[in-house]
Amino acid sequence: MMQLRTLIFTSVVLPWILSSAAKDEYVEARKPKRDIVNLPDYGFHQDTDTAVPKADELPTCLLCVCLSGSVYCEEVNPEMSAVPALPKETAYLYARFNKITKIRNQDFADMATLRRIDLSGNLISEIEDGAFSKLPNLEELTLAENKLIKLPTLPTKLVSFNANFNKLKTQGVKATAFKKLTRLVYLYLGNNELTAVPQLPESLHVVHLQNNKISAITDETFCKGNTSHYIRANLDQVRLDGNPVKLSQHPNSFICLQTLPVGWYN
Q1: CA dist., res. 252 & res. 266, Å (int)
Q2: How far apart are CA 8 and CA 149, in angstroms?
Q3: Fewer CB under 10 Å: which end of the chain, C or N?
Q4: Which of 240, 258, 242, 264 shows the shortest CA–CA distance to 250?
């Protein structure tokens, strides 16, 4: 029996063990070695040293919304401190509530298509004198809620001009600044520091001068003092409330108007 077991072990089991070991060694030899590869850093983390681009370094239509002749640049982030370069076909610009401080002559150069500009709610304290004068089709100009102390030359085809809530002084507004604007219908100069009423064109329908420092008016401010037959038919809304002027002391100043000034007066 012992011899039989020895025979079985040497003829069957031992060859099987040896062949299995050889097979395992072969398989192990064929396994590829896995090298550790260091992948490059593609910048998925925030680099604190990288400068954030400024508004004037980015294309206008990336910062703003450009849509069929209209450009909307309202509350732009990063902050916009100057008028951006506009597409040549721009007719309407809305650049409200930014940090624009100055309007230069070149900002609107060769922009003959512009019909409306709204720069409300900026920090504009200076406008170069020729910035708007070469815009032949500009009809509406809004500069409300800025820091202006004087006005530039205005384009002659304006229909509406709004400079409410600035710091305009009479010395900074030429007496004839609006007289030659024969198409002007709406004039808003409320909440400034004016001490006199500028000469007004016959085309006006609405003039707001409330909350200034106007202390006196004359018979020729709104009417023609040398005639009682003159009727100013177009002008149907005047505001002078919030000024030190006492209208009761100027009874002939409004005889040409079809309606008296609106608002509360002393």
Answers
A1: 17
A2: 115
A3: N
A4: 240
Give residue 110's pLDDT: 87
> 9: which DSSP letter?
I
Sheet holding 186-188, edge to edge: 65-67, 70-72, 92-94, 116-118, 140-142, 160-162, 186-188, 206-208, 237-239
Secondary structure in 3-state letters for 44-100: CCCCCCCCCCCHHHCCHHHHCEEECCEEECCCCCCCCCCCCCCCCCCCEEECCCCCC
Strands 140-142 and 116-118: parallel
Torsion of CA 120, 262, 220, 171, to 10 degrees: -30
**Confidence (pLDDT) at 58:** 66
Give the SS3 label for residue 242.
Answer: coil
Phi, psi of 148 (to 5 degrees): -75, 140
Mean pLDDT per 10-residue run, the chain (266 residues)?
A: 48 50 46 50 46 61 93 93 94 98 95 97 97 96 98 96 98 94 98 97 97 94 84 94 92 90 81
* Contact in structure between 125 and 150 (CB atoms under 8 Å): no
Residue 159 burial by Cβ neighbours in a 10 Å radius (0-12, 13-18, 19+): middle
Q: Do residues 206 and 237 touch, judged by C-beta distance below 8 A?
A: yes
Rounded Cα–Cα distance for residues 211 and 95 (Å): 26
Q: What is the DSSP letter of 105?
A: G
Q: How many CB atoms lie within 10 A of CB 254?
A: 21
The whole-number pLDDT of residue 22 equals: 47
Distance CA 210, CA 213 (A): 9
Helix or strand holding residue 117 (H, E): strand 116-118
